[in-house]
Amino acid sequence: MVVQQVWTANSYRNFNYLIACPETGDVLAVDPLDYRKCLSVARERGWNITQIVNTHEHGDHTGGNGAMVSQTGAKIIAHKNARGRIPDVDRGVGHGDVVKVGNTVELECLDTPGHTMSHICLLSHTDTPALFSGDTLFNAGAGNCHNGGHPSELYETFSRQLDTLHDDTLLYPGHDYLINNLRFTLDREPDNAAAQKMLDIYANQDPENAHITTLGEERQINVFFRLSSPTVVARVREEFPEIGSEPDEKTVFLKLRELRNSW
Ligand SMILES: [Zn+2]
């Protein structure tokens, strides 16, 4: 499996992805909003885009579909419940379905509601696993729930699915929010040395060549995975005294999501 992260340089800071089979050159494009850049990268590499996956129905993820299909004939794959909201879906998928690319690549669909209720992530079946997380999990952060999502579903997705992924899983999110998210983590957990170190190293990184985090790193730097950190709990309690002295993890997660909205 060859993964090319494509930085769109737009104001939403979207990342698109090309996932290629090295044997056949067949490519799956993930949320190819910047279809021109995706096509030109594929052309340079001699690749052939045959499928599109939309992680969810928002326009900054689906907006490149029409042009991409007309130039390549690629088939569109999305959550089966997104069919009404994404035009011309060829294949609706659910939890456990597998998307194959060429001869060598298999990607498993995870049903990951929260940011929207018809959101999928893709997990590669490779020696080093890779997660294409759309707007569910970001570097050092979590998706918002403003446009068709539910915070408690997002918590369930984190605790039941993302928390179970191996530490070496590479994370490929739908947007570049690393720096802002690290600042939010540090505002909740000022003694988080790993987050401070990452901020120091990557504060001025070029998103064309972004640092790819692992789930192991995320567990250190992403406040939405640090729900039992005494510092995090104490800081959340400063804003929401009603959570008491021993809040459960779901309560902390929901309050963090609320704080992030207004931060
Ligand atoms: Zn979205």
What does this structure look like?
By secondary structure, this protein is α/β, with parallel strands linked by helices. It contains 9 helices and 13 strands. Helix 4 (151-160) packs across helix 9 (249-262) and helix 5 runs antiparallel to helix 6. The mean pLDDT is 97. Zinc ion binds at residues 56, 58, 115, 135.
* Sheet with most strands: strand arrangement: 1-2-3-4-5-6
State the secondary-structure class.
alpha/beta
Estimate the helix proportion, in percent: 25-40%
Small ligands present: zinc ion
- Proportion of residues in β-strands: 15-25%
Give the tally of β-strands: 13
Give the end-to-end Cα distance, rounded to a whole number of Å: 38 Å
The tally of helices reads 9
Unreliable segments of 5+ consecutive residues: none
Shape field: globular
Q: How does the major sheet shape up? A: 6 strands, mixed
> What's the Cα radius of gyration?
18 Å
Q: Tell me the series of helices and strands, N- to C-terminal.
A: EEEHEHHEEEEEEEEHEHHHHH
Average pLDDT over all residues: 97
Concise overview:
The chain has 263 residues and is α/β, with parallel strands linked by helices.
Write the layout of secondary structure elements.
Blueprint: E1 2-7, E2 15-20, E3 26-30, H1 35-45, E4 48-53, H2 59-62, H3 65-72, E5 75-79, E6 91-93, E7 98-101, E8 105-111, E9 120-124, E10 130-134, E11 137-138, E12 141-142, H4 151-160, E13 170-173, H5 178-188, H6 193-202, H7 215-221, H8 230-239, H9 249-262
Helix pairs in contact: 4-9, 5-6
Bound molecules: zinc ion.
